[in-house]
Amino acid sequence: MSASAVALVPARAGSVRVPGKNIAPLAGHPLIAYSIAAAHQSGLFGAVVVSTDSEEIAAIARRYGAEVPGLRPKEMAGSTSPDIEWVRHALAGTDWELFAILRPTSPFRTAATIRRAWERLHAVPDADSVRAVRPVREHPGKMWRLDGELMVPLLPQPQGEVPTHSRQTAALAPVYVQDSSLEIARTRIVADGEIAGRRVVPFFPEGVEGLSIDYPDELAAAERLAAEQPALLPPVGVPA
């Protein structure tokens, strides 16, 4: 275990699409329990800290073995509050060298997943962070934005060449979108107002590791998957 790294589990109370999602039940435990368990089981972190604005979530988090040094201020817990605000709040007064963000909405991310991402970060010299990504299904080269009564391509188009929106997708450069399942970064970049930095290493989750529960149908899908293949979830012990 590295005492220079901390796992941060963000769990604000408000959620528009899935109310109470961070503590929604899944296979007998609240969703947040799986991220806490995976962080402990990875053996990489000196502490597992939950950042929340809710006394209820804080109590559940502590029961499952996480630390909650204090509640997140309400002004940092809105639906549009940037991550950098609560990360700064959680790291204030500490001297961790690295931090991971492990969101409760990715319960199938295991200790092995976290260790693979950790290895990816340390395999690239001077990397600022590692972040989970996946290939996009809808390529931005074929996207448009509205301009009055017309629309224009989202991306700048090459001059004298076939526009990206008129090419086969296979002819376009591969593009990846970040998912919310995992990121690990060096705390030094937080002073610059960032949580990713400039040298970002890609991490590619396998199977359902990157599954994120952001809509009611995704929670239902996770319940079915957990019932069919319970071994996909990190093992969670009975809380105190």
The radius of gyration is: 19 Å
Helix content percent band:
10-25%
Main beta sheet: strand number and arrangement? 6 strands, mixed
Integer average pLDDT: 94
Shape: globular
| Share of residues in strands | 15-25%
Strand tally, please?
Answer: 10
* Unreliable stretches: none
* N-to-C order of helices and strands: EEEHEHHEHEEEEEH
Secondary-structure-derived class = alpha/beta
Strand order, largest beta sheet: 4-1-5-9-6-10
Question: What is the first-to-last residue Cα distance?
Answer: 24 Å
Contiguous helical run count? 5
Outline the structure in words.
There is one protein chain. With 240 residues, this protein is α/β, with parallel strands linked by helices. The chain is built from five helices and ten strands; from the N terminus they run βββαβααβαβββββα. The chain has helices at 31-42, 55-63, 83-91, 111-123, 216-228, and strands spanning 5-10, 25-26, 29-30, 47-51, 98-101, 129-135, 144-147, 150-153, 176-186, 200-203. Strands 4-1-5-9-6-10 form a six-stranded mixed beta sheet, sandwiched between helices. A hairpin with a 2-residue loop joins strand 7 and strand 8 (150-153). The longest helix has 13 residues, at 111-123. It is globular and about 65 Å long. The mean pLDDT is 94.
